[in-house]
Design brief:
alpha/beta; Purple Acid Phosphatase, chain A, domain 2; eight-stranded mixed β-sheet; seven-stranded mixed β-sheet; 7 helices; 20 strands; 20% helix; 26% strand
Length: 381
């Protein structure tokens, strides 16, 4: 294996593991107090799925960035990272717990275009300089191999995906923006979405993922994605919409991965972020997927970034059309705590009562039990 493709993580009790998934911490939206509660849970590591920094405050200034302008140069991206590193709760977490991190759209420039190459280069360099990551292979043309397989003995393999750097153009289906919702993130679907060569990961990373899924030898065969993987149907003005930042905008690439999962050894799960809300999804109850698809996904909320009404309302309105969504909470920021052994996986959604309060408590919102070899999950709390 080369570069970042494989990581062996060692711990004394390899039959048990406890870790956190979280993402999306906007300094301007509130304190990162969620990290104090993560530390109290004593996880083995934190899996941060992106948006470690934010390029803008999006109009909310509970705390202020060092400038209201979005970073453009290397110096400006360095200053933004340096500001985030002054956050006391984040500092305490880094001092105590290992992080596995992935880049997302607010950490850096989305996709790879000639128009944004200078800004993109600056963003990636500053991210690398300030994040707890080892060296990764330089592929040329401002491309880097960030994806990796986190292997915890025979207990679990976690395929940490880079779903931003190599994907096909995101901003298609824009011919009817009058019907779009959520600042243009939810757009009417178009035929171009279903092109077979349309990809979220790029060909090389897709091949790597399929190979690692099929060759998995651990009890739990896990995909960690910065954005939601399983489908969510939205309708507006009698038109079907897709969230263009998630796998719903790349259905052919997703189906290729689902096909690999269905014949792969080990119990499959997907862990994701990006949506600033908590979700528990059971694919077997999705009428639009193959009825043999036995796959679940836990989507974690944000550390502090808010979930504004133009984004949250379309989701709430369409929940009744998505019976595969067994749990949803868009009110609280927080994280998922995952506790697993060879036979069971327990995922607990934990929500901070207020990101504006340095002494805010945390509340258990829901707890789910996954049993190895059995489809779906049970809500146990």
């Amino acid at each position: 294996m080369e570069g970042q493709k494989l990581c062996h993580y060692s711990k004394n009790e390899s039959d048990n593991l406890k870790f956190v998934t979280t993402s999306c911490q906007n300094y301007a939206h509130g304190y990162f107090v969620a990290y104090d509660h993560m530390m109290a849970d004593q996880p083995d590591f934190i899996l941060h799925l992106g948006d470690y920094i934010y390029d803008t405050s999006f109009g909310e200034n509970f705390r202020r960035h060092e400038t209201e302008s979005a970073p453009e140069s290397l110096e400006e991206f360095r200053l933004r990272h340096a500001l985030y590193k002054t956050e006391e709760y984040l500092q305490n977490a880094h001092a105590q717990i290992p992080f596995f991190t992935m880049i997302d759209n607010h950490d850096a420039v989305e996709d790879n275009s000639t128009e944004t190459i200078k800004k993109r280069t600056a963003a990636y360099q500053a991210w690398y300089e300030h994040m707890p990551v080892r060296g990764f292979p330089f592929l040329g043309a401002n491309e880097f191999r960030l994806h990796r397989n986190i292997k915890i003995g025979e207990l679990t393999e976690i395929k940490l995906l880079d779903s931003r750097q190599f994907r096909s153009e995101r901003g298609i289906c824009d011919q009817d923006l009058q019907s779009s919702l959520g600042f243009g993130n939810f757009r009417p679907q178009c035929d171009e979405l279903f092109e077979k060569n349309r990809t979220m990961l790029g060909r090389a990373q897709t091949d790597w993922l399929v190979e690692n899924l099929r060759n998995n030898r651990a009890s739990w065969n896990v995909i960690a994605s910065p954005g939601p993987f399983l489908p969510f149907r939205l309708e507006n003005n009698k038109k079907e919409l897709r969230y263009i930042g998630a796998w719903d905008a790349y259905p052919e690439n997703r189906q290729e991965i689902i096909n690999a999962i269905e014949i792969s050894p080990g119990h499959p799960l997907v862990l994701s972020g990006d949506m600033h809300s908590f979700w528990a999804i059971d694919a077997k109850d999705d009428p639009f997927l193959n009825d043999k698809t036995e796959l679940i996904e836990f989507v974690g909320s944000s550390v502090s970034a808010n979930w504004p009404e133009p984004l949250s309302k379309p989701v709430r309105t369409n929940l009744k059309k998505n019976r595969q969504i067994k749990f949803y909470n868009g009110e609280k920021r927080g994280y998922f705590l995952h506790e697993l052994n060879t036979d069971t996986w327990v995922a607990t959604a934990k929500g901070v009562l207020s990101t504006k309060d340095k002494k805010s408590k945390v509340r258990q919102l829901a707890k789910f039990l996954v049993e190895k070899g059995k489809p779906g999950f049970k809500k146990i709390g």
